[in-house]
Structures are given as C-alpha cells and as structure tokens.
Amino acid sequence: MGFEYSLVHVKYTFPLAALLTLLYRPLLTKLDVYKIASLVTIAVVSTTPWDSYLIRHRIWTYPSDVILGPKLFDIPAEELFFFIIQTYNTSLLYLLLSRPTFHPVYLRAERPLAHPRGPKNAQWRFFNLLGQLVFAYGIKSGIDMIRDGGRGTYMGLIIAWSGPFIMLLWSLAYQFIIGLPLSNTATPIVLSTLYLWIIDTLALKRGTWVIETGTKLGIHLWDGLEIEEAVFFLITNTLIVFGLIAFDNALAILQTFPKLFPDVPPYPSPLLLVRALLKAASEYDEERIRGLRDAVDRSRRKSRSFYLASSVFQGGLRRDLLLLYSFCRVSDDLVDDATSMTEAREWIAKLRQFLDMTYGRLGTAEPAKQFILLEFPPDAQLSLLQLPTQYLSPEPFYDLLRGFEMDLAFAKPSQGQKKLSHPISDEVDLELYARRVAGTVAELCLELVFYHFKLAMSKEEKNSILQAGIRMGLALQYVNIARDISVDAKMNRVYLPLVWLKEEGLTLESVLRDPNGPRIEKLRSRLLGKAFASYEESRGAIEKLPTEVRGPMRVVIESYMEIGRVLREEGHQVKAGKATVPKLRRMRVAWKALNR
Ligand SMILES: CC(C)=CCC/C(C)=C/CC/C(C)=C/CC/C(C)=C/[C@@H]1[C@@H](COP(=O)(O)OP(=O)(O)O)[C@]1(C)CC/C=C(\C)CC/C=C(\C)CCC=C(C)C
C-alpha cells in the first residue's frame, strides 16, 4: 500500500478542479450539472472494461506500493477516480470557454441535393463523409495493430476502443464540431491535454504507473512521455469535448425548432437528445436560424451592455431576450432614423398594424407575414417575424409605441409655428415617458422569465415583482437620458423636465444651443439621483426571481447602471458624445454581479 498515486490527485487534479469550480460556480446551471453527470457516467462505463483489460493483460501496471489497495475489476480506486476527475475538469473548461457562445446560430439547414433551388450547405455532408472515412480507416488500422500483436498493441487498443465513439459523435454533431469557434473546440482539448501530459510525464518518471515493454512503440513525444500516453490523453479529452458539443448541438436543435420538437422538458432524456441529433438538417427552419443570427448580430453591434448580459442567460430565455431586444432596437431605429416626421409616424402606424394583426385585433385576413415582407425594409423583417409574441402580452408593446410617439412630439418649429414643442413639462411626464419606453421593456423581460421558469408564485407576488421591474426600467431610462443629453440635443430633444430647466434659469432653446456647462451637470446629477433612488427601491425584487435568473438579471441591471456611476465621476470617458464603461470595468461589474 502507498500514497504515490493519491498524491497525483492531491497535487494536480484536485487543485485544478477546485480552481475551475470556483471560476464557473456563478454560471453553473442545473443543466450543466446534468451534462457533466451524464458525461462522467459515460466515461466511467465505457473506460472501465477497456482499462481492466489493459491491466489484466499487463499492458500497463501499478506497483503495489504506490496505490491504496481497493480495486474494481482490477482497476485501482485512484485510476477510477482519474476517469471522473479528468471528465469533470475538461467539462468545466469547455463550459467556461463556451459560455459566451449562442449555439443555435451555428445550426445549418442543409438542403437535399435534389432541391429545386439547388444544394445549400452541401459541403457539410461532404465533410461529414470525409470524417467518417478517416475515422473508419483509423479503427481498421487499430484493429490491424492489435491483430499483429507486439509493439503496436497498446496503440492499437487505444485507437480501436476510442475510434467508434469518436466516429459516432462526429456523425451526430459534425456541424458543431466544425462550425463552433476554436475557443470552444480546440482550446479545451489542447489545454486539458497539455496539463495531463505534464502530470503523466511526472508520474511515469516516478514510476507511479508503468507501461510494460513489448506492447508499446517505444517512441517518446518528449523525455518521459510515451507516445501512447500522449495519444490516450488527447483522444480522451477529444471524446469529452465532442460529447459536450453533441449535447449542446442537440439542445440547440430542441430549443430552436419548436415545430419539430414541441414539448421539450428542461432536462431532455438521452433518447430525446439523440432523436434531435438524428433529425435531418434539411428539416431545420432556415428562416428561424437567420432570424436568430440577425438578432445576435444586432445586439453585438448596437449594445455592448445587453450583448454581454445576454451571454449569461441560458437556453430559451437567452434566445427570447435576444429576439425581444432585436425587435425593440429595430422599432426604435425605424422611428429615430426616419428622414421626416411623416415617415416616423408612418413607421409607428405600421408597427401598430403589425401588432394588431399579430394579436388578432384587426379583422383582416391578410397574414402578418405578408404585411411584414411588403411594408418593412429587409433588414428589419426577421426581427418582426421572429418576435415571440405567443407568450408576450400586447399592452407593453402598444405602450412602447406610445413612448416613441412622445419622442416625435419634440417637433422643430414648423412654418408659421414659433415655439418648440416639448412633451415633458414636469417629473410626472418624465416618469410617464420612461414607463412607456423602458418600464414596458422590463415588463416584457419579466414575462419571458415567468414563461420559461414555471414559478410556484401567487398572482400578487408576480405583480409585485413586475412593479419593481418597471421601476428598475425607469432607473435605466433615467441613466440613458442623463448619458445622452448632448446626443439628444442634436436630435432636437431635451428629456429634462421644463420645470427643472426653469429652476436653473435655462430654456429649451438654450439647452439645444449648448447642452453643456455647470447647470446642465447639476440637472444630470439630479436625474442620476432619481435613477439610483429607483434602482435602490427595486433591486431587492431580483432576489425573488428563480435562482438561475438572478445573477444574469443583476448583470443586465448593473452593466447599465455602471454607465450612471461613470457619469458621476469627474472627467469620465466619452465616445461619440456618450459616456462609456471601459471593457475591463464592464467585465468586473458582470463578475461581481454574478457572485453577489
Ligand atoms: C440581456 C438582454 C439581451 C436583454 C434585453 C433587454 C431588452 C429587450 C432591451 C431593449 C432595449 C431597447 C432597444 C428598447 C427600445 C426603447 C429604449 C431605447 C429603451 C432604453 C434602453 C436603452 O438601450 P440603449 O442604450 O441601447 O439605447 P439608445 O442607444 O439610447 O437608443 C432602455 C434604457 C431601456 C432598457 C430597459 C430594460 C432593459 C429593462 C430592465 C429591467 C428589467 C430587465 C427587470 C428587472 C427586474 C427586477 C425584478 C428589478
């Protein structure tokens, strides 16, 4: 009996597991636990018979004075534990690196070769076939090496055992294995493998485990690292990462195409996951995939705070928040970027008609889709088509449009009309405006949360969370106004209440002429004061949301409120007339929000 092998775990595998757990803990979801537990089970079940065979045939051995003693099928307990901890560590590294990835956008609808509009994404089938041929050849070579016996035996056993698993995972998830960013595929494999190569070199040198001569090639990758060991760790890490990729691929299919899979439980069974992967890619809804890509691109381009925040949400909620963001952004831009007041009013009328049709208020036979394709510009169409209206109530959308109408009330003096018009006379108007453009957004976000997490909560409890959410929306909107005073002035808009201007001896015209100076700064801080009061009053309600939503929701709120904190600092950073939060600071805020 000895402690040598246990010490390998104490010194190398445990500390890494502890570090990765610490880093990933704030992001860990129940679904992640399900993924890791499934992978660990598969790893133990598939490796045990093979490892037992190797030990019984003395291809590798353990001196009795380095292990504790207990064995299962001749495999020392420490070795069995290695299967578990290696799978755990590599899985956590993969989860950490792939967290920002929104998987559905990597799905590809493959048109059948005989499709009237010709093949689309036909190269994917070719890559699949090519991979299958390479793996089949590998398996055959492995079997040949075992048959020949002698020095190629151990290498042959590694290849012949792992080949079928890799080939299966490749055949099921080749779209993701090829298409995902390298940071999700190659990086976790390479980093985990390098770490294990170093541990293995140390263990082999100290004689903790021994590879017998006669069945190994005798080639070293570097001093002390046998080629078989190097290949073994590379292949096992590849299997773990491919397994997780296949899992994410299946989840993406299940969560993206409700027409193909209408009832998806929160933790889909292995059978359902396999069924999803076996679904022909020609059946994927291409418009849906394009809609999701469009929404992700838009949030990446238009709002760094919301884009960063979206990456900490998971599954269907993440998807729907992105789609909601995209719709809100497109609608706001259509109105703001219109070249005339008439055009802006027309967009609002069309958006209202879209809502009427979607929510069935208009007795028209014309389907909303036709209307969208005819009346809206191509780059806006997908965001309207994909809006998840089936589980969002119409009122907040109509109110949002009323908020946009208030924006239009900031009219330039038209011919014959002397005075500038201004819809925000006092704080009541300011609150009404903020309620319409941001309170509504908060309400819609919370409706999505309530839909995706079936909560055992009374109507009253839900309503009190909704009211707090609306107040949080106000806080964000006040920060938005405080940030954009000079940007808005260029568009002829001043959201500061007229009574506030009067108190400072300012007029609408004077602010439009020069939206800077100490008096403006005083009003900016007054508005920020209101923002932070509303924020303090409502942030407690976040803790009443489901555990998995709390951290991400705090990230959304804190990332935006941080703009307000920056504005309160003297000499804050300004980009295109707007105060910005530096990237590192944003990351720190997100990290703190998740760990609170
Ligand atoms: C994570 C994620 C992708 C969330 C999506 C949130 C979402 C749907 C945002 C829509 C934003 C938008 C474009 C709305 C149109 C109206 C508008 C302009 C509102 C202002 C947003 C400012 O965005 P931005 O700075 O990009 O805009 P401009 O450059 O000025 O055009 C707003 C400030 C409103 C934002 C309000 C929210 C996101 C609501 C926040 C509140 C909650 C989520 C509820 C919190 C819950 C509790 C219980 C407290």
Mean pLDDT: 92
Q: Give the helix tally.
A: 23
- Sheet bearing the most strands, described? 2 strands, antiparallel
What's the alpha carbon Rg, rounded to whole Å? 30 Å
Helical content band:
55-70%
For the record, give the distance between the C-alpha atoms at the N and C termini, rounded to a whole number: 45 Å
How many DSSP-defined strands? Answer: 8
Spell out which ligands are present. Answer: the ligand CC(C)=CCC/C(C)=C/CC/C(C)=C/CC/C(C)=C/[C@@H]1[C@@H](COP(=O)(O)OP(=O)(O)O)[C@]1(C)CC/C=C(\C)CC/C=C(\C)CCC=C(C)C
Structural class assignment:
mainly alpha
**What strand line-up does the widest sheet have?**
1-4
GO molecular function: geranylgeranyl diphosphate synthase activity; intramolecular lyase activity; lycopene beta cyclase activity; squalene synthase [NAD(P)H] activity
EC number: 2.5.1.32, 5.5.1.19
Keywords: Carotenoid biosynthesis, Isomerase, Membrane, Multifunctional enzyme, Transferase, Transmembrane, Transmembrane helix
Membrane topology: Multi-pass membrane protein
Please provide a written account of the structure.
The protein has 596 residues and is an all-alpha fold. It folds into 3 domains: 4-110 and 121-284, no CATH class; 287-391, no CATH class; 413-596, Farnesyl Diphosphate Synthase (Orthogonal Bundle). The protein contains 23 helices and 8 strands. The protein has helices at 4-24, 30-56, 77-98, 122-148, 153-179, 186-206, 227-256, 270-278, 286-302, 304-310, 315-336, 341-358, 368-375, 378-385, 394-408, 427-452, 459-483, 485-490, 498-503, 508-513, 518-538, 547-568, 583-595; strands at residues 60-61, 71-72, 75-76, 210-211, 220-222, 225-226, 574-575, 578-579. It has a two-stranded antiparallel ribbon with strand order 1-4. A two-stranded antiparallel sheet has the order 2-3. It has a two-stranded antiparallel sheet with strand order 5-6. Helix 9 crosses helix 11 (315-336). The radius of gyration is 30 Å and the shape is elongated. The structure holds the ligand CC(C)=CCC/C(C)=C/CC/C(C)=C/CC/C(C)=C/[C@@H]1[C@@H](COP(=O)(O)OP(=O)(O)O)[C@]1(C)CC/C=C(\C)CC/C=C(\C)CCC=C(C)C. Residues 299, 302-303, 306, 309-310, 321-322, 324-325, 328-329, 332, 437-438, 441-442, 445-446, 465, 468-469, 472-473, 476-477, 480, 484, 538, 541-542, 553, 556 line the site of ligand LST6JFWI. It catalyses: all-trans-lycopene = gamma-carotene; 2 (2E,6E,10E)-geranylgeranyl diphosphate = 15-cis-phytoene + 2 diphosphate; gamma-carotene = all-trans-beta-carotene. It is a multi-pass membrane protein. InterPro entries: Isoprenoid_synthase_dom_sf, Lycopene_cyclase_dom, Squ/phyt_synthse, Squalene/phytoene_synthase_CS, Trans_IPPS_bact-type, Trans_IPPS_HH.
